[in-house]
Structure formats: C-alpha cells, structure tokens
Amino acid sequence: MRKNVLLAIGLVAVAVVLFASENKEELVNPKVGYDVGDKVTDFKLKNIDGQSLSMADYKDAKGFIVVFTCNTCPFSKMYEKRIDLLNQKYQSKGYPVIAINSNDKTKQPGDSYEEMIKRAKDKSFSFPYLYDESQLVATTYGATRTPHVYVVTKNSDDLVVSYIGAIDDNHKDAAAVTKKYVEAAVDNLIDGKPVKTTFTKAIGCTIKWKDA
User: Fold this and answer.
1) 148: domain range?
2) Alpha-carbon distance values, 35 to 102, 140, 162, 183, 184 (Å)
C-alpha cells in the first residue's frame, strides 16, 4: 500500500515538473515573428523626409514589398538597385516597396537616421526608407537579416504575409540571377494565383540589435 502511495506521489511530481517545464519553455521561447499566412500589424515610422509613414497611408495599395535593409551591409548595398527596380516595377501595380532600417546606430553609426538621409539622396531611392529606431517592427516581423523581405497582400481588411525571404538567388551578380523570388511571388498575387514559393532563406548581414 505504502509503495503504491509513493508511486502515485512520484507520478504526480513528474507530471508537475513536466507541466512547469513545458510552460517555462513557452515563456522562454515564445513565437517570434510572422509566418506565411499570418496577419500583420501596421506600423508608423519616420521616413527620410521627416514625415511618419504607415501602410494605411497607401489607400490604393493591394499589398507591399517590405524590405528590412540598411546603409552599411555589403549585401544590402549589392541589392539597392534591385530593390529600387522592384519599386519601379510594382508600385504602379499596387505593390510598392517600403524599406526599413532597424540597425542600432550605436553599434553601426553608418546606419543612423542622418546617414540614411544621405544614402537615399546619393542613390536616388524611389521608395520610402523608414527608421525603426526602437527595433519593434523588426522584432514583430521576425526579421534577422539585411536584406530580409516580407511580401504582404491585402485580404479584405487584413494584410497577410504571402512570402518571406530573399530577393533572388544571386546576391553577387544581378545578371546571373535565375530565380527572382520576390518578383515571382508578387506576379502570382497580381494574377490572382497562389504564391508558388512562399519561403526562402534570407541571405545577408545580421541586424545589429540593441544591448538588452
């Protein structure tokens, strides 16, 4: 009898430990960032023209090409022209580019707001370039690299993630690209078709996060 009682107590204790462990794991490792199919929350960030901008300001947009990028990352620099061409091609079709810099300026002074203004002017960006100084937007999206792209599309009153990842399959040479992931995703959406490739691995520098 005593053995049965001790066994029962032991089983209860194990169950409690497992339950606590599972819940602790949920607290320590909560879901961070968006997945394909998730609804996104709008943001309001300062543009290089000094004005705040949100997706809600685009009344006629069908969706957006949200690109987390920066001034200093070599990968971002290699993609600047391609990002601008994406905006030129798709803005009139309802999918404008919104570029966001989330790097901590104390770790990367070249990514300060003042330097963003200079870079955008020097490169004649055709797209807005927003400053995520708090890094809240990058955290919310789950962005980790520069560049890191999220294609979102309007679904009734919601904005839904349709693609996450790289711009294409060759960061070194635009002329050698064989797969244009972002273009293919947006073309699918414009044609009213499911996006064939919804996720690829973003290639680039890590976002420079603030110290905790």
Assistant:
1) 33-206
2) 19, 11, 9, 19, 18
Per-residue pLDDT at 2:
47
Q: What is the pLDDT of residues 80-124, one digit of tens each?
A: 999 999 999 999 999 999 999 999 999 999 999 999 999 999 999
The pTM assigned to this predicted structure is 0.86
Nearest C-alpha neighbor of 38 from the set 134, 142, 194: 142
Split into its structural domains, the chain has a count of 2
Phi, psi angle pair for 67, to nearest 5°: -120, 120
Beta strand extents in 51-157 (DSSP E only): 52-53, 63-69, 97-101, 129-131, 145-146, 148-155
Please give the backbone phi and psi of residue 10, each rounded to the nearest 5 degrees, phi first: -65, -40
Residue 211 resides in a domain:
no
What share of the chain in percent tops pLDDT 70?
85
